[in-house]
Amino acid sequence: MSILTLWSTCRFSTPLPGLPLSKGRGTKDSPPQPTRAQPTFRDLESKTDTLRMSTPSEDRTWDVVVFGATGFTGKWVVRHLQKEGKDVQWAVAGRSADKLAQLRQELQLPEDVQECVVDASDLEGLKRITRRAKVAISTVGPFMKHGTPLVEACVETGTDYCDTTGETPWVREIIDKYHDKAVQNKARIVNCCAFCSLPFDLGTLMVVDHMKKQLHRKCRSVLAVIGDTKTGISGGTTDSFFNMMGQDSKTVRSMFEPYQLHPKDGPPKGPDKGILNKVMYSKELDCVVGPSFFGMVNSKIVRRSNALQGNSYSNSFSYDEAEVQRNRFVGWMNQVGSNLSMAFLSMGWFRGLMRKAMPAPGTARGTIGDQGYFNLHFVGKTEPEQGEDSTTVLATAHGNLDPNYAGTAKMVLETALCLALQGDDLVQQGYPSGGCLTPAACMGMTLLSRFQSGDFLSFSLLPPIN
What is the pLDDT of residue 215? Predict the structure, then answer.
C-alpha cells in the first residue's frame, strides 16, 4: 500500500455520475459505567481440562469468542455483539486482565460475558478456550507475528475461525500448514473477512450467481470498482502493512503473484497476469478508474473462491479491481505515487519514518463509525457463446459504516455468526465442513443473505447491458 493510498482510504470522494448515494446509520457508543468484576477464564481452566479435542458444537459454551477484544477493531466487534448478540453466547479474550477489565467497564459488558486471559503465543491456553467455542474471531494483528497459534488451536480443536487479515503471504502459509488437517478435523478457517476481502468476494459471487441462474451463462470477467467512500486509518493497520513490507524479498514478491492463494493440485489457473496498473475510462460506469491497492489482496481471495468451487465461475474467469478517479491526471498522479512509495517502503529507514507519521497502535485518524460509508461497483461480463455477444451485468454494494473498522468489525462478526448459527445448514447445502476457505466458498449466498436482511451492507443488481 502506498502512503498516498493509505490516506486515500480516508477520502474516496468521487461518486459515479448519475448515482446519488445515501450514507445510512451506524452505532452509537454508550457512556461507560462501572460494573462488578467477573472471574477470568483462568478461574475456570480446571473445568475444561477434560474436554476432548472433538467437542461437539452443541456441547460448547460459547457461540463466539472475540480474540483481540481490547484492540481498536476488536472493540468494534464487541460493540456490535452487544447490540445484536442478545441471543448469542459469547466471550472476550486478550492477553491483559487489566485491559479486559477496562473493556468491561468502558463498554458495560453483560455479566454473563466471560473474560479469557491468554497470550497470543500460548497454544495450550488458546486450545483450552477454543474447545469451548463454536467460532473464534481474530482481530490480533500483525497476523504474521501473532496470528498462527490461534489458527493452529482452532484446527486442533475442530473450531471454526474467521479473521480480519489482509496479509496474503501469511494466508498462503496457513493454507500450506493447516488446510488438510482442517478438512480432517472439520474446522472451517476463513481468512480475509474484513473490507479486505468480504464485500468484493460476495459481490463477485452475486454477479456470477445471477449469470448462472438468470442468463444461463458462465462469467468471463468481473471488474470491482471502489467508489465514494469515507473512512479512517489506525495504527494497527499500518503496523501490519509495514511489518509485511519488512519481510524477505521472496515474501514481498509473492504479494504481487496473481494466483498466490491458488489451491495446490487445484483446477487450471485463469488468464490474469497481475493487478490493474493503469488509468482508464470505464464506459459501463462512465468514469475514470485507476489502480487500487486493495486489489492486491481481494483479487487473490476472489480467484481462490473460484478455484475452491472447481472453477465454477469459468475456467477463463478473470478478476480485476480499481478505484474511481476524479480525472485522468489525478489518477495518473495516484498511480505514480503508489508505485514510488511501494519502492520506498522496501527500505527500513523509510518504514521507520512513516511509522512515526501514522497513528499509534490502538488509535486512529479520519472518519470512524457511523459517519463513514463505502460504495462498490461491479462490472461483470458473461462468456460469449456462439452467435451471441457477451452480456454485461452491473451490481453495487453499499455499506453505512466506515469500511476499515466499524464496517470491518460488522463483516467479521456476521461471518462468525453465520458459522455459529447456520454451520450445520451450510454443510447440508453442500458447502465444505472444513479447510482453509474464503467467505464465498465457505458460506456463499447464505452469508450474502445475512447482510441483505440487515441494515449495514446491501448488494443490488442493475439491469444487464447487452
Answer: 94
pLDDT of amino acid 58: 58
Q: Which parts of the chain register pLDDT below 70?
A: 1-58, 234-239, 361-363, 466
Residue 30 DSSP label:
P
SS (H, E, C) 329-389: HHHHHHHHHHHHHHHHCCCHHHHHHHHHHCCCCCCEEECCHHHCEEEEEEEEEECCECCEC
The separation between CA 271 and the C-alpha centre of its own chain, rounded to angstroms, equals 25
- Find all residues with CB under 8 Å of 414, minimum gap 6, and list them: 447, 450, 451, 454
Cβ proximity of 278 and 291 under 8 Å: yes
16-55 b/e (C-beta count within 10 Å ≥ 16 → b):
beeeeeebbebbeeeeeeeeeebebbeeeeeeeeebeeeb
Strands 374-382 and 219-226: antiparallel
Q: 81-130, pLDDT tens digit by residue? A: 999 878 999 999 999 999 999 999 999 999 999 999 999 999 999 999 99
Residue 232, φ and ψ in degrees, nearest 5: -135, -170
So what's the pLDDT on residue 107?
96
357-366 pLDDT, tens digit each: 777 766 677 7
Furthest-apart CA pair in the chain: how many Å? Answer: 72
Per the CB < 8 A criterion, the answer to whether 405 and 364 are in contact is yes
The SS3 of residue 436 is: strand
Q: What is the pTM of this model?
A: 0.86
Question: What is the spatial distance between Cα 305 and Cα 339, in angstroms, rounded to a whole number?
Answer: 28
**Cα 193 from Cα 137, distance rounded (Å):** 10
Distance separating alpha carbons of residues 236 and 242, to the nearest angstrom: 10
